[in-house]
Amino acid sequence: MIDNKHSFLQIPSTALYLMNYFESIGYDVVLHENWEELGTILTESSDYPYPMDPSFTPSYLGELGKGATAFALYLKKGDEVVATYAAKSHRPRTIADNLYEFYPNLEVQTLPEILDREDMDYYYSSCQWVHTDHLGKKLGVSLDLLKKHIIFDSPQFQNVDVNFAIHKINDSMKSYHLSKLFYSNSESFAIKKDGGVGGAGSEEDREYNIVWTVKESFQSKVSEIKATYN
Residue 62: which CATH number? Predict the structure, then answer.
């Protein structure tokens, strides 16, 4: 079931295979823009391993969270929210500058040229979480793919060129983003010597990459992706 609480954003038909998958394993999808509720779920859950991404707090979003410039996703099992995701229109340069404001000791690397262009539109995603009781069902992967379909295929987002995110660096995280989530590139983004970047890493995590995919790259992989759900 789809519970659409967003002001006017719709889930595109290209994501039907994901909606069928969620339904087949007994999960409902909620599309919304309730940032206060999202923050409460993540900050009050002992299961969420990172600080809350300050870019998705109500005080920071303000009116940016309205009018389809941002959206959030839940997966629910019955009445319980067991997975989350969020995304918004935001330039990588602005994210880097904002993170420096939040974390003055953050050492930000030079952005790749494709992430610092004035002629491209960008969407930033964060707040990915799956409750540990529901791991092993491709929920995180599937919710990420649903997010990409919304960003790249929804009529409201016709001009979005790039979806990007930030992830900690360890033995598996880069490979996970490239091979499981179908991003195309992951490069060095920042170092935080005391660890802890909201939505991306805990106090033990010092180094972070920025990961991205362009619209054409993701759309060229959809047939391959769909085959994994047959």
Answer: 3.40.630.30
Tens-place pLDDT, residues 115-164:
999 999 999 999 999 999 999 999 999 999 999 999 999 988 878 999 99
pLDDT at 216 over 70: yes
Task: Report yes or no: 39 and 45 within 8 Å, Cβ to Cβ.
Answer: no
Beta-carbon contacts of residue 97 (< 8 Å; ≥ 6 apart)? none
Structural domains of the chain, count: 1
For 202: left if phi > 0, alpha if psi spans -120 to 50, otherwise beta; the answer is beta
**Contact at 8 Å (CB) between 198 and 102?**
yes
Q: Does position 64 have pLDDT exceeding 60, yes or no?
A: no
Domain limits for position 32: 2-227
> Beta strand 107-108 with 162-168: parallel, antiparallel or unpaired?
unpaired
Backbone angles phi, psi at 206, to 5 degrees: -105, -30
